[in-house]
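Students often ask why we bother encoding 3D structure as a string. The short answer is that it lets us treat folding as translation between two languages. Here is a chain of 310 residues written in the first language.
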Amino acid sequence: MLRVILAQPRGFCAGVERAIEIVERALKKFGPPIYVRHEIVHNRYVVDDLRTRGAVFVDQLSEVPRGARTIFSAHGVARMVQDEAARRALPVIDATCPLVAKVHNQGRRYAAQGREIVLVGHAGHAEVEGTIGQIPGKVHLVQTVEDVARLVVSDPTKLAYVTQTTLSVDDTRSIIAALEARFPGIVGPDVRDICYATQNRQQAVRDLARQVDLILVVGSRNSSNSNRLREIGAELGRPSYLIDDASDLDPAWFSGVSTVGLTAGASAPEMLVQGVLDGLRQVDEIEVSMMDGVAEDVRFRFPAEVAEVA
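And here it is in the second language, the structure alphabet:
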């Protein structure tokens, strides 16, 4: 028999729930098609489901017909994207996660003080591209402690940092320590910009690792926070696998394993977790329990355009 311990919390966070519901409310209020720039959240099941209901996902605003209702994804967009939408008379609903928007505001505030900005994040990630594009002036992207040693800045006494919201808390703390050691005058928010949901899910994996032989993380390959969960499990010495759904399960993983930890990234729906449990039942008889953990009750307000839609 396999003992399966479900992480708590796991799966959808408030920002993801809000972004998905914004698309659903827009479809209900305005009717399809509703155009969404970038995947609304990084999960292909969510995206495919919304697509069947009339959402059209595009990479560039040039793919959106003039005047068509458009939604910006939870990851946020650059100022130039906002300006392009205004030029093309696109009625926009902004689904940017409020915690990502907070980082944008902090970056602009530091830039207004005449500081160059260091952004701790992953190159190419939609949130990072949006954040860089929201901050006027010079933004330096660092991904590792080694990157800090290679930084070339105009004035070491006029620096500030902000962080991507979905990073590993431990890795980010190390990078911030390196920044503060090299640039003693740098200012920034410690790890507070790493969102509450990311921190809670990472702590839950750390707690799981003390109780299980193997960790499964449900999430898409392009989900930053899901990848971090898998990495944390591996760093703590537990075989850890990132899976889209039950079809990715390999029975060989469970040879000699008696206890499995199961979690999900912040953009992965609970139905996929339940599907993985069904998949594990094909491997062996299972006994499911829930770990103690943080109960999340955060809720964000909806944009005015869809605030009144039931």
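Translate back mentally: The chain has a mean pLDDT of 96. Keep this in mind for the problem set.
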